[in-house]
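FORM 7B: Structural annotation worksheet

SECTION A. Query
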Amino acid sequence: MFLNCPFTVMLKIPKFAKNLQSFLEIRVFAVSPTGFNRFCNDTAFNDKNGSDSGTEWERLLKPFDLPELRASLVRITPYQLCKLLALPLDVPTSMELFQWAGTQKGYCHVFDVYYMLIDKLGAAGEFKTIDSLLMQMKEEGIVFRESLFIVIMKHYGRALFPGKATRLLFDMRSVYSCEPTFRSYNVVMDVLLAGNCPKVVPNVFYDMLSKGISPTIYTYGVVMKALCLVNEVDSAYALLRDMMKHGCVPNAVVYQTLIHALSKIGRVDETLKLLEAMLFMGCIPDMDTLNDVIHGLCKMLRIHEAANLVDRMQGFTPNSFTYGVLMHGFCRMGKVDEARVLLNRVPEPSVLLFNTLINGYVSRGQLDEAKAVMHESVSIGCVPDIFTYNALILGLCKKGYMVSARELIDEMQIKGCEPNVITYTILIDWFCKKGRLEEAWNVLDEMTAKGLALNTVGYNCLISALCKGGKVPDALNMFGDMPSKGCKPDIFTFNSLIYGLCKVDKFEKALELYQGMLLEGVIANTVTYNTLIHAFLKRGELQEALKLVRDMFFRGCPLDDITYNGLIKASCRTGNIEQGLAWFEQMMSNGVNPTSNISFNILINGFCRTGNVQGALQFLRNMKYRGLKPDIVTYNSLINGLCKMGHGLEALKHFDKLHVEGIRPDSITYNTLISWYCKEGMFDDAHLLLNRGVNSGFIPNDVTWYILARNFTRERDQEFWTLFEE
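SECTION B. Predicted structure
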């Protein structure tokens, strides 16, 4: 853009015609690609009187015009032009000098001149001008050197043009007849990595190999880092073995890159192997690398291995991150006392470490210990912060000590720590969970008076409580207020409202809200669908429920055991046991293994209700084969089915199995068998079973007495009419 600009030069040289010749004789320090050096010892650059180093040359230079320059100078050489271009002149002035020198008779620009000018243009981001100069060099027959392209690539990188740097690399050979070496490839891969283009780095690397250019250890380090950034950790790992073929020995950077990536994805055993290999090769890991391994072990709850590794690494001093990770790991395992022992080893524990320990005790319900840790932190001058108080307030709320939680808020304010939105949200949440909505509203008023606004979590707490309490209109009003308060409803908001609407039989409104959440970009989850599906099943609208099931499949939302159990139960209720079994088999084939006996019990009860007792017994054997133990619900369903089919003796055999399997019969068990005895007219046996149950701790209920009274009355009536007829 400057090649055709009008000639108005701003070289700051007083009487340039008289002073330029002497100025050019100054020994200036400059570095060019050819390696020539000149050390500046003139007063123009080294003021021994203590004045600013740049003031002398500023005094020598002032604006001049071209006619004066032409009238005063006979000739300027490429070497002298390089010295001028090395000065901190602006780009237009540098271009004017370059163009003017080129007009001299017998003068030809050399590579060093182009290098100096292109470097300055690159720093100014004048890449179009650089392209023009490169073509000019080609036309003038100047031999290109790799160093020129490297400097341009670096400028492309600083300007965030990684694509242009890559294009220039490929043009070096084809356009400019300059063979790139590993240096050019390394620079381009660096630029791509810095420019957030890690996916392109491996392509450049494989192009390098295809051209027969041997990579360096630095090359491998960059490529491995790029592969790890795009989650191609196995490919990066494979390069570790490939390095030896090219005579490269892994260094600490290579090992650290791989260890960090493997640790992030939980491949802890491999990180340990790499750490051992690293030490074997004489590479010393830094503390961050060790922390990566320790963090990985702690995430897998291999806390003692992590602690042993810390003790093993002689010469390394664990930092606060190391202790924090270990303490957090111990707390997750419930070994909070061990975390406390570890805290005592920290020379200067921070409030963050104390908070980790306090959270650990709070999660286990050990409030006294948590308070003791807080007092200990205060005794060593570590002031509790908002996270400390929030943890303790949460612990008090979990225990139901709401008054104490409010008192702690007052205490923290006295000590200069103001409660934040999270503090008040904890109180609102627990007041809502305990059904104390009025007090939750009082907390909301208090935080509003302090200029704090509810966040989405706070709204969700109140909306959920209102819906559970049947106050759905109030919940919908709060929902309507959220956008104006800067809160975006999330999946928990919609799920609470859909549940509340289904609870009060507002199914059309619930479906409308479901459609609305999809339009808002909130993706329905399994809880959403389960709420709607069970609402339809409860109303007997199986086909509407199945439409939602198909919608779940279409949207990739997984069905869980709650979904399947609802469908199995609905099928069994209509007597369609085969369909219930089909849902059960689909559940198992999809990897949704039942965590309880609910699915089995529903099906066994379904078999018994349809009179297929043999099917129920077969399914019971299937249940045991899958490793699940029948419970009292299972046996009650089976005993009831057998009694209804007139197989009371078989039912009694299963009743005896209860004692063998350590299952205690309940009132349903006794009432079912007593009822069967009575129907069969075996009143003495019914009386014996009742006594046996009472001796075992069974307390007869209203149903028990009703069965006995009704059947004894019927027996007496029958005896009366028999005597009357005689």
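SECTION C. Observations
Residues 702-725 form the longest helix (24 residues). The two ends are 130 Å apart (CA to CA).

SECTION D. Sign-off
Analyst initials: ____
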